[in-house]
Amino acid sequence: MTGKTRVAILGASGYTGAELVRLIARHPAMEIAVLTADRKAGQSMADVFPHLAILDLPPLVAIDDVDWDAVDAVFCALPHATTQKVIAGLPERLRVVDLSADFRLDDPAVYEKWYGLPHTETELQKQAVYGLPEFYRDKVKDARLVANTGCYVATALIPLIAILQAGLADPDWIIIDAKSGVSGAGRSAKEANLFAEISEGFHAYAVAAHRHTGEIDQELSKAAGRPVMASFTPHLLPQNRGILATTYLKGEADAIHAHLEKRFADEAFVHVLPYGKTPATRHVRGSNHCMIGVVADRQPGRTIVVSVLDNLVKGASGQAIQNMNLMLGLPETTGLEQLPLFP
Amino acid sequence: MTGKTRVAILGASGYTGAELVRLIARHPAMEIAVLTADRKAGQSMADVFPHLAILDLPPLVAIDDVDWDAVDAVFCALPHATTQKVIAGLPERLRVVDLSADFRLDDPAVYEKWYGLPHTETELQKQAVYGLPEFYRDKVKDARLVANTGCYVATALIPLIAILQAGLADPDWIIIDAKSGVSGAGRSAKEANLFAEISEGFHAYAVAAHRHTGEIDQELSKAAGRPVMASFTPHLLPQNRGILATTYLKGEADAIHAHLEKRFADEAFVHVLPYGKTPATRHVRGSNHCMIGVVADRQPGRTIVVSVLDNLVKGASGQAIQNMNLMLGLPETTGLEQLPLFP
Amino acid sequence: MTGKTRVAILGASGYTGAELVRLIARHPAMEIAVLTADRKAGQSMADVFPHLAILDLPPLVAIDDVDWDAVDAVFCALPHATTQKVIAGLPERLRVVDLSADFRLDDPAVYEKWYGLPHTETELQKQAVYGLPEFYRDKVKDARLVANTGCYVATALIPLIAILQAGLADPDWIIIDAKSGVSGAGRSAKEANLFAEISEGFHAYAVAAHRHTGEIDQELSKAAGRPVMASFTPHLLPQNRGILATTYLKGEADAIHAHLEKRFADEAFVHVLPYGKTPATRHVRGSNHCMIGVVADRQPGRTIVVSVLDNLVKGASGQAIQNMNLMLGLPETTGLEQLPLFP
Amino acid sequence: MTGKTRVAILGASGYTGAELVRLIARHPAMEIAVLTADRKAGQSMADVFPHLAILDLPPLVAIDDVDWDAVDAVFCALPHATTQKVIAGLPERLRVVDLSADFRLDDPAVYEKWYGLPHTETELQKQAVYGLPEFYRDKVKDARLVANTGCYVATALIPLIAILQAGLADPDWIIIDAKSGVSGAGRSAKEANLFAEISEGFHAYAVAAHRHTGEIDQELSKAAGRPVMASFTPHLLPQNRGILATTYLKGEADAIHAHLEKRFADEAFVHVLPYGKTPATRHVRGSNHCMIGVVADRQPGRTIVVSVLDNLVKGASGQAIQNMNLMLGLPETTGLEQLPLFP
After folding, report:
1. pLDDT in tens, B323-332
2. Active site residue D151
3. Which of A27, A235, B80, C218 has its CA 20 to 30 A from that of A164?
4. What's the helix, strand, coil split of chain B in %, to 5?
5. Which value does ipTM take for this structure?
6. What is the CATH architecture assignment of B152-311?
């Protein structure tokens, strides 16, 4: 017996599943006890992700075949909708970080609006804690079920919640122009995500209609203390990893910058660049870091905030481990010290 | 004697120069008589651009060595500042399309502000016509000197000028979030533009400070009939070609869409997509087309306009040929019928 | 009535289909009369390929719904196996260029070996002419059915057939190390071809087992006048277009270079670079050109030949039009003058 | 005092320098005491490599300003030629791993042939140990100066030395077709390495003339026990990291595979895939691993070996740390446990 927390990763054949394996395999206080992938049950991770062939990992099994007695904690990286039932069926004693959207929205009606399905586990929903540790750290520590933030949402909202909480920008004047790498779309085989369809090109999608919008509204409204409806346009970048959000605000840039610097001074994973400098996605690739830049617009009274993170790490699997570290009473940065890979 | 217009391309060793060669070599009414490249004088285009090795082209010469008697018209693809003196020294009878920024700004003080140098040819400046044919067609026809639009500017302003001229959006509420492929930065050897620095990453640059801003203000102000100061943020995409501008406006989307459809119905190179659809840069690659999409934002009364073009074609060399066609009394589309290359 | 040849493109929703449309839409002696795509019947090309939205094209229909009276010639861009039956069912008077592998192999047993299915149209097979115009021009002119070469095969064999026919290399010592862009894999939605699976990486595949090998053996054996079995390893490049073959031979480089220069001096689409220089795929992108370089190896008596083409043009759709031009008695280069697009 | 080995990284502003920082910053037994970059002296690493801004690092200084008393060991990541004099001037007590080519070649005449300059430190050269730990482990342990292998060389030779030492392939019949990511070309600003020159394209370079050839000959000759001259063709991939070598041999594939499996069974960083499977560069990205595949060619008696590594890690900085670990008596894998980053 190692004394390590034995974790199950549900949905290990997707990109966030593989990223959980990459990070947890080197985590000093967790060990991978169970990997599930219903459609690929029976295969090895080496078959599904050859870059992980060098690890000694349990085989992929179906969720129904998991021996839960061998598990202390669960990362759930399944598609939304499927997730609700799976988590509802887990033994009560297991602490869970869910990477799907299923438990992020407080209001089941809002969930139904954006995801097109009624929420079937509304009681469980009430117990879920929103998993943005920089703002919900204390609640996460005590949670049984944490709903990990969406990747777009984390990118835009780490600076924005802080700004709105401090009353430094007009809540009615928020425009988030976001750009994401392709891995955010997952590993399912779709024509639209083929290399030849994506490379050497760029486009907006789901304009004014992206599912993460509900989550953005919810958290911005909490931060502002009143209903907020932001403009949010996602775009697809011809690159694997990274999200950059360019956010236009009505507010004073120097005050915003000064506040963010102070607000995040003690955060291990949030870095505010010197005033006037802006970050690049490549500077956080593979790491759990979020970088933020603040610039004054030419228009007096307008501010441009640029924030970046790696959608598979701080936008998904790294954030999930950060949350689980909190839930297990571990230092928040445990196993997340990887530096960015550049070039 | 062919009866074709004999053109000189000044600055043939850069990307816009090569693109002029690609297009003019197949133009039925122009022939390439002179190619200059001061630092590469004496070399062949096959040395400098092996993809053009299959053409029979004149050698690269220094500008001082050009026999102007062999030339009927000039495309000037030189860096800004250098350009002014060169064009001032050309024989009066030559018609000129200038691809640099040197003659785009009506006001020399604005030029000096953005480019950091006093304008030395202010008389010549007064004769220059701004080369956006969809709006200045009649003036271009009679011009001796046309100042081809900047690539970012063309992308954002083809829809925006039309919208402001029709009074369909609030001129004080314009946010242009633009993204460009790397070829827009030219061919000079800079660390920042190395493959390893650009690929698999994305960043904003010159936030609230890009030189094209002066040109944007100038043209939007003309369109609105009063001073306009837009927010403009450029970003660099990990791809060769293509610019996409996402523009946020206060105005009604359906009215804006209906107007753009009508306004551009007879334009050969401007295509307004069905309401609610948005274009991708890859769908105009290598062609002289500009595609525009209009979507209503969730915020009532706000509209999102997405426009794309190929920065080296409609954003530079194709536009230059379109202007020259007008100046020579040719059908505007002559030699510009290339279809987009996808994938 | 235009007097143009009315062509049908069968399988217009794939990449080679779209490329046929791009090229034929600007072809002065052909017009697109029919476009088929069984699974996407009823859609428009603008739906399926937005970069072609600017053209006025017939709708996609199912093959069974084609009015063959409106058609003079057929380009067949369907998957192998399916193709045989479709072509067998066409009216006799229609001339056909087939881009699939179904009629490339003279020997049905060889077809069955590599494609895993018996050939069902062996009589038709006997009439088929192998569509590499640089070597089979006269036969192509009189053919009713031309089997367009495979993309890997064209790349490697344009120089190799010429070399073996001249007896300038040892037929038992041929190693072809080939690298292809991803568009060669087609547009079907496969996990292996997702952007995130391909970008920033490179691998060999089907090592010593690729289906094009049968075609390579067949043509090299004809050229050498005795059975030849080459080593052939394909690899997948993180780029859309372009194949490069590095071929290792036992033979004298200067003699090989001199012969290739002479042999291809009058070929419009084959360019032999100066001795010692080698080409890049980017220098033929979007064009129907093949470029060849020859270098002496350090090992006395060994030669390295590097050849490139665009797999969708000279490796597929451009070659098909070149063949059809021959079949229709048109100049071979008609409609194929597009210059390479770089960068 | 930490008890950690205090290391200096000479040439910290290049890619291998940055990669040394990335790896050593998390190394449990080393600490970064000195960073040099002559042309960028006075700047911070955050200026030069923003992805490292989150670390607390010493400033960049000129080599002449280093206080060597604060240093226990040196990683030298300077250009060849410059390197010789620098290392010759270091205090004798410092152990050195040199990442340049300056001390890799035993014979100064061979150095002069490939690098075009006479070797000026021939006495020092005699002390240098060739830094391929899988074959020179014992010598490395005792060395004062280790000449880290070239990136192409490590990729091809890890399998090849083992094969030739076992007499399993004909030394006169070795063809290495190698493909490298662009970061191998370093960070200097050259037109040829601009994004727009590299992306969406592929080419061979330095065909039969690459500088690593001397090193390949040297090590293969030692392995075979007689002079070996391999064919070696490098190519440039449109990706940042990764080298793949496809090697054609005369020898029996099953025997070769069986031997490699056995030979590398205890090596932490060398992985032989199941017979018939081949690796991809993306599966070792960011890690110190080398993966090897073996396939029988169709030609009886010929074998194809495919090997991959990350040129900046196992091909440079990771290998350097592996060597230094040996020199310091540390477990060879210390600080090199990072898993590959995919996608």
Report:
1. 999 999 999 9
2. yes
3. A235
4. 35, 20, 40
5. 0.96
6. 2-Layer Sandwich (3.30)
